Amino acid sequence: MMKILVGLGTCGIAAGAEETYRKLSTHSQADGAGFQLGKTGCIGMCYREPLVEVRDDKGARFTYGAVSPDKVDRILEEHIKGGKPVDEWLVWSNDTVGSDKPYLDNQSRIVLRNCGTIDPESLEDYLAVEGYQALKRVLDNKDPEGLITQIIESGLRGRGGAGFLSGMKWRFARMAAGKRKYVICNADEGDPGAFMDRSVLESDPHSVLEGMAIAAYAIGNVSVGIIYVRAEYPKAIERLNIAIKQAEERGLLGDKIFGTDFEFHVKLKEGAGAFVCGEETALMQSVEGKRGMPKVRPPFPATKGLWDCPTNINNVETYANVPWIVLKGAGAFNSMGTENSKGSKVFAMAGKVKRGGLVEVPMGITIREIVFGICGGIKEDKKFKAVQMGGPSGGCIPAELQNTIIDYESINKTGAIMGSGGLVVMDETTCMVDVARFFLDFTQRESCGKCTFCRIGSKRMLEVLTRITEGKGRETDIDLLLDLAQRVKNTSLCGLGQTAPNPVLTTIKYFRSEYEAHISNKKCPAHSCNQLLTYSINDLCTGCLLCKRACKFDAISGEKKVKHVIDMSKCTKCGECFKVCNFHAVARD
User: Fold this and answer.
1) What is the distance between the alpha carbons of residues 546 and 172, in angstroms, rounded to a whole number?
2) Which of 417, 392, 411, 390 is nearest to 276 (CA)?
3) Distance CA 27, CA 52 (A)
4) C-alpha Rg value of the chain to the nearest Å
5) What sign results for the dihedral spanned by CA atoms 118, 123, 125, 126?
């Protein structure tokens, strides 16, 4: 019998997938429906949600995009009953058809291997794809040192941003003295535009639980693991709780796992949304019930962490890699990537890109191959300008460096950082000064305030950037920003402050002329900063009245078929007249 799966990750639900599921559910309950209905998580094609997949008995898979409830009847009639796919809505298949095949076919999915293919609320589905077999193998082998060596040889580096060798972190925690130790999963994903961890937790929670259990066994003396997850991720929290309960009932978590003496329990700690709690020492303070503020290191968490016990912290993506490495071997993982950056990396693609969503690519691929080869290029075929990597702590990489390969060292050389995997694409309409202002506004508000230069210096930098975008910039402002940026970087205690100036430094490095235009000419080259724009109506105006109707402030006057005029004393520079004009009669300067 055919099977129909509906993607019910947060992205799908936001696009209306629950309504589509309910419509399919009414048909599935009818006699002779001809299909079974199921649900899955996010396959990564967020730009095509709601997604519906049809699977037949021969293993063929067909994915339909933008399936609103009104499209259900036709899919059931033509595909389920008639056996003929509806080509106009088909975005991917495991055959040779689908309008967006390059998006999935050009990826190398390890972390996302089960996302969008299994039911995240079904333990049986996870077991059917070798779930918990890696943990069983580890317990059968009884060789925690050998396990750590395997993780080191794989070259797996922490995917949370710092890129430290995961196996070495495990070894340090194992070597540390302590009768009680902890493992923590950092799921406090706070970067604007990032949603990798959320999607994995919603779509394949058992893989993260299994990875944590394997790490706990390798380190030793660990009976409790904690997932620090953002409270703003209700669907991830719901599915994690389901997965934990299922695993405990089956003896895959809890006491005597697989009948051995190994004990491992997982608890959730919901974070309140403080960005600084993504920093590991602040995270542990929060778990302990204290205010989330970073601590001086050393000592490092591996020797003195949660409750002063040796603690290992990795993020969601790192743990999700572990079961695959154990089953496939270190060589299978380190055969991908570059000399010092092995395996694959998940990116959340956002911004001005045609195919936005989740992609998992081998290390060593170029920025251009991701943006154009996988994600289809820039929306409306506008000019590619830059990408922002590493979130608010990252930096902007210009289009002329689009052949930069994705690995830790190469990205760091540009002034950006890999970060956890947010990748925001920008086009010619993006103002890079305003981008720096936006990210600094975020980090300044999220500063815990412990370090003087992070607390006050970032505030002064934000004030300078704001006045530049408002046309009030001074000739000395660029040098002032550079000076403040270095002081914030050099005197901040944690990674938030040390990297907060990166968006400013990289935009000045690569787009200095835009700063100079804002300051000297009082113009925004990208026509993005409203305070620096002026609008006028030229001789191409046909008097169609569209702009006049769109203006909510009566700033446009004129009769039908007569050239209109803008009263700048009333104009709020909202740009609605420019958007609606079909004759290029509204000039923006």
Assistant:
1) 68
2) 392
3) 15
4) 26
5) positive
Instruction: State the burial class of residue 568 (Cβ atoms within 10 Å of its Cβ: 0-12, 13-18, 19+).
Output: exposed
In this model, does residue 162 exceed pLDDT 80?
Answer: no
**CB-based burial, 180-196: b 16+ in 10 Å, e otherwise:** ebbbbbbbbbbbebbbb
CB 56 within 8 A of CB 25: no
Whether 161 shows a pLDDT value over 80: the answer reads: no
- Domains observed in the chain: 2-100 (3.40.30.10), 123-333 (3.40.50.11540), 344-427 (3.10.20.600), 432-521 (1.20.1440.230), 534-588 (3.30.70.20)
pTM comes to: 0.93
The β-bridge partners of 270 are 229
Burial of 136 (0-12, 13-18, 19+ CB in 10 A): middle
Whether the Cβ atoms of residue 159 and residue 317 lie closer than 8 Å to each other: yes
Q: How far is CA 19 from CA 54, 81, 203, 452, in A?
A: 17, 22, 19, 51
**What does the alpha-carbon distance between residue 531 and residue 514 come to, in Å, rounded to a whole number?**
15
- Sorting pLDDT into bands at 50, 70 and 90, what band is 383? very high
Residue bearing the bigger pLDDT, 156 or 272:
156
Q: How many H helices and E strands in the chain?
A: 24, 18
The backbone region for 326, taken as left when phi is positive above 0, alpha when psi lies in -120 to 50, beta otherwise, is alpha
Q: What digits encode the pLDDT tens for the residues 290-327? A: 999 999 889 999 999 999 999 999 999 999 999 999 99
- How sure is the predictor about 140, in pLDDT bands with cuts at 50, 70 and 90? very high
Chain centroid to Cα 426, Å, comes to: 16
Do the Cβ atoms of 429 and 382 come closer than 8 Å? yes
* List of residues 6+ apart from 150 with CB closer than 8 A: 167, 325, 326, 329, 330
Instruction: Classify strands 2-7 and 35-40 as parallel, antiparallel or unpaired.
Output: parallel
Going by pLDDT thresholds of 50, 70 and 90, the confidence category of residue 468 is very high
CB 570: neighbour CB atoms within 10 A?
12
Q: What is the pLDDT of residues 27-49, one digit of tens each?
A: 998 888 889 999 999 999 999 99
Q: For residue 362, say if its preceding peptide bond is cis, omega within 30 degrees of 0.
A: no
| Residue 484 CB-density burial (10 A; 0-12 exposed, 13-18 middle, 19+ buried) | buried
Whole-angstrom distance between the N-terminal and C-terminal Cα of the chain? 61
Q: Which amino acid does the sequence have at 64?
A: Y
